[in-house]
Amino acid sequence: MDLSGKRVLVMGAGISGVAVAKIAKRLGAQVALSDTKPEGKLGAVPGELAQAGIKLISGPQEPAILTGVQLLIPSPGISINHPLMRQAAARDIEVISEVEFAFRVTAASFVAITGTNGKTTTTTLTGEILKKAGKKVVVGGNIGIALSEAVYNLADDAIAVAEISSFQLEGVKHFRPHACAILNLTPDHIDRHGTLQVYQETKERIFARQTEADFLVLNYDDPVVRGMAQRAPSWVIYFSATQVLPEGAYVREGNIVLALNGERETVCPVAEMGIRGAHNVQNALAACALAKTCGVSTAVMADTLRNFQGVEHRLEYVAEIGGVKYFNDSKATNPESAIVALQAFTEPVILIAGGYDKGTDLHAFMMAIKAQVRELILLGQAADRFAAAAKEHEITVIHRAETFPEAVSLAEKLAKPGESVLLSPACASYDMFSNYEERGRIFKQLVLALRR
Q1: What is 7-95's CATH superfamily?
Q2: Residue 55 in 3-state DSSP?
Q3: What value, to the nearest 5°, has the Cα angle with vertex 358 and ends 368 and 147?
Q4: Which superfamily is assigned to 100-307 in CATH?
């Protein structure tokens, strides 16, 4: 990608924004980065940008910053409906996402994963399987380092395994993963996309540019996702945790099975997997199907599944204190994700939930709480609405906490030996923390401090 002499504007001084700005500069562009925060609140970013020769524009984003710009790359948190995005389109300024930028700066192939829930686990697991198989692999996207940073200078025969959110898919144009998966689709980010239909259409952009030479892995158990095959230009491979399929990845007699190209192979027993929960069976099926498209043997898949212990902040085991186990599921930022976490437990649960309220429907979540939760601790902006919904569902074991330390301390007092304390907020973190990672790390620190 040659950007020599082009004027590039990057919006947002987050991880992806800073990475894009630096790479665009290396590619010869005249780069400016704009962020609404005052320079004094951007930490080390101003110094980094100055050292790289990148202009920083801090404070209000006025239309004047678009003057002379030829390429605009907004951070994922900035909607395509942002006033400046619309003005850029009116001025015929090309607007692309960081994912599209990453795709343009490398000749490596992409394996991409999206869906409402399970993206991080499936992406990480797929990357681990490919690494175990001896492939040249980087993992990035909506996980860890920025995707553009991960793929820059990547060898042509390497594979970029990418977690892709709907926000990142808004601005793709030519992005074409060789293999991709859509894990599920439930209402989420409606405050950003407006309707469930638009959310779905945005997710489908992940396979829009594929050809017959590419692969699309779809969840057969999700009717909406299953129906996406009708619009897919690529070879569709289904996975199912509930049905034996004529072809695809599925569970049969307690074993993960791959049936493709006329061959049926057993990967390993579900009981031998290193990660718990029915939702992780689905994640494993998707990862195995993706790995198969890259030529990986089932023996390598089995070895990885047996040794993979999951990802940070997703049903992450923290410690056992006083006979009580503590689990960090901070990545559960919507009710559906929290539901699958609760379903992974057989013992009674002390649940800590709440945070930044997305306004999602709570009926199914409250039914899961009635079935599995002995005591419910609520905090954050969503606490009032969650408490009201709990009472409507005749849940009476409701406690309120004003702070995170108070919530963890209360959970310790309420929990009995043999039970588990679970942080699974069913909410975003923005009311109290900068992101779900910070929320999860603080939870773990508070839990480990209980040992003292």
Answers
A1: NAD(P)-binding Rossmann-like Domain (3.40.50.720)
A2: strand
A3: 100
A4: Mur-like, catalytic domain (3.40.1190.10)
Mean pLDDT of 211-217: 98
Radius of gyration of the chain (CA): 23
Positive or negative, the Cα torsion across 330, 336, 338, 344? negative
Q: Dump pLDDT digits (tens) for 103-158.
A: 999 999 999 999 988 898 999 999 999 999 999 999 988 777 889 999 998 999 99
Q: Which CATH superfamily is domain 316-449 in?
A: Mur ligase, C-terminal domain (3.90.190.20)
pLDDT in tens, 333-368: 989 889 989 988 999 999 999 999 888 889 999 999
Q: Where are the domains of the chain?
A: 7-95, 100-307, 316-449
Other beta carbons less than 10 A from residue 155's beta carbon: 11
What is the DSSP annotation of 330-373? Answer: TT--SHHHHHHHHTT--S-EEEEE--B------HHHHHHHHHHE
Sole residue written with tokens 């304390």 = 421
pLDDT for the residue 451: 86
Q: Which residues are catalytic?
A: 119, 142, 189
What does the mean pLDDT of the chain come to? 93
**253 to each of 231, 243, 257, 383, 404, how far by Cα in Å?**
32, 11, 10, 43, 43
Phi-psi group of 401: left, alpha or beta (phi > 0 → left; psi -120 to 50 → alpha; rest → beta):
beta
Measure the CA–CA gap between 46 and 54, rounded to whole angstroms: 9
Q: Write down how long the chain is.
A: 452
What are the strands, taking DSSP E only, across 75-157? 94-95, 109-114, 137-141
Task: Give the residue from 126, 127, 162 showing the smallest Cα distance to 142.
Answer: 162
Work out the number of other CB atoms within 10 angstroms of the CB of residue 226: 16
Q: pLDDT at residue 188 above 70?
A: no
Burial class (CB in 10 A: 0-12, 13-18, 19+), 83: exposed
Of 29, 94, 46, nearest to 66 by C-alpha is 94
Query: Phi/psi at 373 (nearest 5 deg)?
Result: -100, 130
